[in-house]
Design a protein that fits this description.
Blueprint lengths: L1 H10 L27 H9 L15 E7 L5 H12 L2 E4 H10 L3 H11 L6 H15 L3 E5 L5 H10 L6 E6 L2 H9 L10 H24 L3 E5 L4 H13 L4
Parallel strand pairs: 1-3, 1-4, 2-3, 4-5
Helix pairs in contact: 3-10, 4-5, 6-7
The chain binds adenosine-5'-triphosphate (ATP), ligand LLZGTKA7 and magnesium ion.
Family: Belongs to the adenylate kinase family. UMP-CMP kinase subfamily.
Protein name: UMP-CMP kinase
Organism: Panicum virgatum (Blackwell switchgrass)
């Protein structure tokens, strides 16, 4: 459990200020494993779930949701809310890469140059970070936010982790809205400037959309209209997640 908490602390984005009780899911499902549930009830609940492990973790294969969408479509914002309301571990590929940069490693120096250019980090680096984070989280439900970015990423993940996602959530947002949000983000990100944003939008269209198309052809994509307020979008997200079996 401590590993799970430490992993979550290190790897999840800080909760957004909009993640309040008031904004939480109106369609909230009856969680089988809410965090605040007493341990005895948790154990009982686990007897009735197919995926939970002996410590609530992933001794069997976890439910994996890839969360995709253009830059600034609101992936991180919505994942924070989903993690809180539905008990998912939130692994953001971008945050993992930024964490590697912050560690001061040689790999980090390579990564920061790629991010400034809006390009895609080599698959073996990103997949290895995600694989380790999944292992550290020991979770039975995982959101992988902002990955895979291209077909090569997808193929590398499926080869190394040995799994396809159970679903792919696609936040569909118009470009002008994404640009407006990114320019207003104000979190000191090296890629939140108009030059990099334009490059990221091109990379999204040319490399990430084909991944979404691939998973669409496999019936895995759930498209969500990502316009409106974060809370309005979360209403649609809640409907989707409440309908899932995990
Ligand atoms: N529905 C919304 N309406 C207005 N602003 C939003 C909405 N959702 C998120 N934002 C804001 O837009 C910015 C980008 O959101 P967020 O970081 O969640 O996007 P993202 O898809 O994770 O972007 P990136 O791919 O760059 O990581 C943030 O400042 C966030 O607070
Ligand atoms: O799988 C990934 C995820 C991210 N990148 C690089 O990081 C930036 C920022 O990512 P966000 O998910 O938007 O935080 C992205 O533009 C890429 O340069 C990546 O290469 N691979
Ligand atoms: Mg993000």
């Amino acid at each position: 459990m401590w590993r799970r908490r430490l992993g979550a602390f290190l790897l999840r984005s800080p909760p957004s200020s909009s993640s309040t009780a008031a904004s939480s899911c109106q369609h909230r499902r009856h969680h089988l494993l809410p965090r605040e549930e007493p341990p005895a009830l948790n154990r009982l609940a686990r007897l009735f779930t197919s995926q939970a492990g002996s410590d609530g973790g992933n001794s069997q294969k976890p439910f994996i949701a890839f969360v995709l969408g253009g830059p600034g479509s609101g992936k991180g914002t919505q994942c924070t809310k989903i993690a809180l309301d539905f008990g998912f571990a939130h692994l953001s590929a971008g945050d993992l890469l930024r964490h590697e940069i912050a560690s001061g490693s040689e790999k980090g120096e390579l990564i920061v140059d790629i991010i400034k250019e809006g390009r895609i980090v080599p698959s073996e680096i990103t997949v290895e970070l995600i694989r380790k984070a999944m292992e550290a989280s020991n979770a039975n439900k995982v959101l992988i936010d902002g990955f895979p970015r291209c077909e090569e990423n997808r193929i590398a993940f499926e080869r190394i982790v040995g799994r396809e996602p159970d679903i792919v959530v696609f936040f569909d947002c118009p470009e002008d809205e994404m640009v407006k949000r990114l320019l207003g983000r104000n979190q000191g990100r090296v890629d939140d400037n108009i030059e990099t944003i334009k490059k990221r939008l091109k990379v999204f269209e040319s490399l990430n959309i084909p991944v979404i198309d691939y998973y669409s052809s496999r019936g895995k994509v759930r498209k969500i209209n990502a316009t409106g307020t974060a809370d309005e979008i979360f209403e649609a997200v809640c409907k989707l997640f409440s309908s899932l079996r995990f």
